[in-house]
Amino acid sequence: MGRSGDAHPRSLRCASPGADHRGVDHPLPEPSGAPAPAPAPLPDPTAAARALVDGVERVVRGRRAAVELLVTAVLARGHVLVEDVPGSGKTTLATAFAASLGAECSRVQATADLLPADVTGSGVWDPASGGFRFVPGPLFAPVVLVDELNRTSPRTQSAFLEAMEERRVTVDGVRHRLPEPFVVVATQNPVEQHGTYPLPEGQLDRFAVRLVLGPLTADVERRVLREQLAGNRPETLTPVLDLAGLLALQRATAGVHVADATLDLAVGLTRATRTDPRVRLGAGTRAGLTLVRCAQARALLAGRDHVLPEDVQALVVPVLAHRLLLAEEHEPLEVGGAGSRTLAQERLAAGLVPGTAVPLHR
């Protein structure tokens, strides 16, 4: 339904937290326009991907594994769920990634009263034309940070679901294509569960990876404090790649060779989760496809033109764990909260590959 006035009051630019979305000034091109032409290939995709990791790490100190996992998911055209306590650097990770691309980043603070139109956009009355015009919401940005996604209602969560899966939104019966590239980085707090709406399995399955930043060492934390005091913030980063370059990287990732034996490994791992008595709902075919695509990205970061079995095995926990719905008798006690459930899922996923360690983030 159309409305007038300012739209999307809870969204803001990641790089300038005081700003808000106002439709008349929205800088993005018409979202329903023709798709952009294919980007020119990069001369050295691996060097470009590593430069992106290095660029983010200039601000996100001491968490290279998490940064690499974020970039891996993005190269695989996936979205990222970051689960950690407040103040751990989740927002900084997303904004530093966007800044390293010189890209716009929209931030949405999820709340119980957030409406789908607050994120997708809506029709706003235009007195000049005497009709309604579509004003894009914060989803129409290359990088979208959603803080505490599990605090918004299932109805609004479904709006994110369509955007993440189909890369478009439907408003008043009209479909609007989202920009390319399009990356959603959503966060949730594993400790505080009061007033939240747990993400359904269908939405969790849309996230390529779940990552946890974990604690910093004392030396790294001291360095972060010193650099923050000196003004080392995401908005000060110099872009190392542009959006066309990221699209070229994603195309290069899709071209990394995957042998039949590697596909068999991925299929075997996902099917194992469906037959495990500790799991009520295992990883599906989409999870297997994501596992292979992320393995392609990992191979590209390593400078290879083919996927090795260890690429797949190394990604089992971040790609599969959050998709596992544990059997009731294997669910952790509720007092442990979502953090305990995450750990139980990761232990189970790690058990699929002998010798795989659960990330030391707790």
Automatic annotation (TrEMBL):
Pfam families per the UniProt record, alphabetical: AAA_3, AAA_lid_2
Biased composition (Pro residues): 29-44
SUPFAM superfamilies documented for this protein: P-loop containing nucleoside triphosphate hydrolases
Annotated region (Disordered), positions in chain: 1-45
The ChlI/MoxR AAA lid domain, residue ranges: 271-328
One Gene Ontology MF term: ATP hydrolysis activity
Composition-biased stretches (Basic and acidic residues): 19-28
InterPro entries, alphabetized: ATPase_AAA-3 (IPR011703), CbbQ/NirQ/NorQ/GpvN (IPR050764), ChlI/MoxR_AAA_lid (IPR041628), P-loop_NTPase (IPR027417)
Domain of life: Bacteria
Residue span(s) of domain ATPase AAA-3: 79-208
Name listed for the protein in its UniProt record: ATPase associated with various cellular activities AAA_3
Taxonomic path: Bacteria, Bacillati, Actinomycetota, Actinomycetes, Kineosporiales
